[in-house]
Design a protein that fits this description.
The strands form three sheets. Strands 6-9-10-3-11-12 form a six-stranded mixed sheet, with helices on both faces. The chain has two domains: 339 residues, ABC transporter transmembrane region fold, CATH 1.20.1560; 227 residues, Rossmann fold (3-Layer(aba) Sandwich), CATH 3.40.50.300. It starts with a helix and ends with a helix. By secondary structure, the protein is an alpha/beta fold. A hairpin with a 2-residue loop joins strand 11 and strand 12. It contains 21 helices and twelve strands. Keywords: ATP-binding, Membrane, Nucleotide-binding, Transmembrane, Transmembrane helix. It is found in: Cell membrane. InterPro entries: AAA+_ATPase (IPR003593), ABC1_TM_dom (IPR011527), ABC1_TM_sf (IPR036640), ABC_transporter-like_ATP-bd (IPR003439), ABC_transporter-like_CS (IPR017871), P-loop_NTPase (IPR027417), Type_1_exporter (IPR039421).
Length: 603
């Protein structure tokens, strides 16, 4: 939404819809504070108590001024005993106000941090239950910005602005009440700031909100670009892409700068305007109050108290623009969080699909249909895999190889047909049960910052040391780990680039072996390793794939010669199947792929 559109909506009255949306978001955010409702009640009571102290203190000080003025004017002298008691009482009230403010801030900090902790937990659970298609469509930088920056913004604003908002509301109500007891005419003059504040806030809020949303979006884009640039730093340097990369960074950074400046300008400009209005109204109150004193309508002490009240009364109203700016920021961040929380989760079927208990196949794709869009990639795919078989899947890029494996793991849900594991429709299995049966090794080795031991044990946290070491030996990890200074306690850095790429892949294979799954998926698992490492992996596979059903996707045909069955895919269909020798003899697609690899390599 552009600023002009926001202005049009404001003129046509449509802005009320956004106001309702903001209120709904704020109310939903407040629902996360229900767990701490008694602390909130205590904060509210402290705010009322502290505010009442601020309300009555000027009135008591006004009595002191009247006492001095009357004592001097009547020439009877000032009653210093009574004056001292008044000053002591005011001092105690101010000290009580300090204690109330301190406790408010301490309690609100705890409430704000607990609220964002619960929000982060819900966000993490939500992302874990979202389909892979959602993650594929999102920028990592934007998700990180929501999980970190927006959460931090909510926590900071809640613990600062929420208390201030409650205190200001109570203060304004209390001040109006006590000011009316002094002079309704002066009170009416002081209250002129209220409609002025409303009009100014109503005019500038849409502009501030629109630019703030753009700023937060640009912030997410910048986070994503920085992550991408640092991840590909070597490639950028190798191709002399620094200037282009910097220009792209500068463009995103400029957008963030411009929207950030505009959002802060429109949010912050309200305060100086309101301060100007406050000062003008204060001058009017002083002039009108002086006339009231000279005409004998109010005592001079009451005028002094009223001027203090008018200052305290107008202060929260003039500061309301800043509080409102902060609340807009909180709501904008909360909306980004709630947008993810409202996304549709992975489908959990409440109805049972047809199982085939008499089916002896380990995995069966039965007339499967699937497409990432309306156009189907797999139109009528069928494949039977017997227990212990190793199925190699080959084909040109885009043939549907990885898609097939994603469907097996239910990263995406099929549009038609069924996928059965041991005769059970995979949709009848929970995600946890399904993934316990399947282990996977991807082309890109994913390791986290931690020890080599912890990375291997990731698939089975309760595994014994003997089991971890056995998996490492079977995957030929033990051989190179023992040569490292700290062995299995060697800490991998963030990118795990303190070991070679082949060693990283071997660790992920050891991790999959430790999981001891019924079905093993190797998606281009050997494409990033050298010939010697590839031979080590193949030797390990011969031992560890015995009795285990496996799917192997490989562009290197040399890694799949021993597969039980090779299926050749093209545009989502199986166009050929058989063993290596039969497919070569058929002189079809497989033979073309084979010849393109090995004949070109020999020339």
């Amino acid at each position: 939404m552009t600023i002009k559109e926001a202005q049009k909506q404001m003129k046509s009255g449509e802005l009320g819809v956004n106001s309702k949306k903001m209120f709904r978001t704020f109310r939903r955010l407040m629902s996360y504070m229900k767990a701490n409702k008694w602390l909130l009640v205590l904060v509210l009571l402290l705010a009322i108590g502290g505010t009442m102290v601020q309300v009555v203190s000027p009135k008591i000080l006004g009595n002191a001024t009247t006492l001095i003025f009357e004592g001097v004017s009547s020439k009877t002298g000032v009653d210093f005993t009574k004056l001292v008691w008044i000053l002591v009482l005011v001092g105690l009230l101010y000290f009580g106000n300090f204690i109330a403010d301190f406790l408010q801030q301490a309690l609100m900090t705890a409430i704000a941090q607990k609220t964002t902790q619960n929000l982060r937990n819900d966000l993490k659970r939500k992302i874990s239950n979202l389909p892979s298609s959602f993650i594929d469509e999102q920028s990592n930088g934007n998700l990180m910005s929501i999980a970190i920056n927006d959460m931090d913004n909510i926590a900071t604003m809640l613990q600062q602005s929420f208390v201030q908002l409650m205190s200001s509301f109570v203060l304004v109500i209390g001040m109006i009440g006590i000011m009316l007891t002094i002079s309704w005419k002066l009170t009416l003059a002081a209250c002129l700031i209220v409609p002025c504040s409303y009009l100014i806030t109503r005019y500038f809020t849409p502009k501030a909100r629109v630019n703030l949303e753009k700023y937060l979006h640009a912030q997410g884009n910048l986070n994503g670009y920085i992550e991408e640039a640092y991840d590909g730093y070597t490639v950028i340097k190798s191709f002399n892409y620094e200037k282009v990369a910097f220009n792209q960074f500068e463009h995103i950074n400029k957008e963030m700068y411009e929207t950030g400046c505009k959002s802060k300008f429109f949010a912050d400009i309200m305060m100086p305007i309101l301060i100007l209005m406050k000062n003008l109204i204060y001058v009017i109150s002083c002039a009108f109050g002086a006339v009231e004193v000279l005409t004998g309508n109010i005592p001079i002490g009451n005028l002094q108290a009223f001027l203090q009240y008018s200052t305290q009364f107008s202060k929260p109203i003039s500061e309301f623009s800043q509080i409102w700016s902060d609340m807009i920021s909180v709501i904008a961040s909360a909306e980004r969080v709630f947008k993810i929380l409202d996304e549709k989760e992975r489908i959990i079927y409440d109805r049972k699909f047809v199982n085939r208990e008499d089916d002896t196949a380990k995995v069966r794709f039965d007339h499967v249909q699937f497409g990432y869009s309306k156009e189907l990639l797999l139109k009528d795919f069928s494949l039977t895999v017997e227990p212990g078989e190793t199925i190699a899947i080959v084909g040109h890029t885009g043939a549907g190889k990885t898609t097939l494996l994603n469907l097996l793991q239910r990263f995406y849900d099929i549009s038609g047909g069924s996928i059965l594991i041991d005769g059970i429709d995979s949709r009848n299995l929970s995600y946890e049960e399904l993934h316990r049966r399947i282990g996977i090794v991807l082309q890109e080795a994913w390791l986290f910052s931690g020890t080599i031991y912890d990375n291997i044990a990731y698939s089975q946290p309760n595994a014994t040391k003997e089991q971890v070491y056995a998996a490492a030996k079977a995957a030929y990890v033990d051989e190179f780990v023992r040569k490292l200074p700290k062995g299995y306690q060697t800490v991998l850095n963030e990118k795990a680039n303190n070991i070679s790429q082949g060693q990283r892949q071997l660790i992920t294979i050891a991790r999959a072996f430790l999981a001891n799954p019924e079905i093993l998926i190797l998606d281009e698992a050997t494409s990033n390793v050298d010939t010697r490492t590839e031979m080590l992996i193949q030797n390990a596979m011969k031992q560890l794939l015995v009795g285990r059903t496996s799917f192997v996707v490989a562009h290197r045909l040399s890694t799949i010669y021993g597969a039980s069955k090779i299926i050749v895919m093209d545009h989502g269909d199986v166009v050929e199947s058989g063993n290596h020798h039969d497919l070569l003899a058929a002189q079809g697609v497989y033979a073309d792929i084979y010849n393109s690899q090995f004949l070109s390599a020999s020339t």
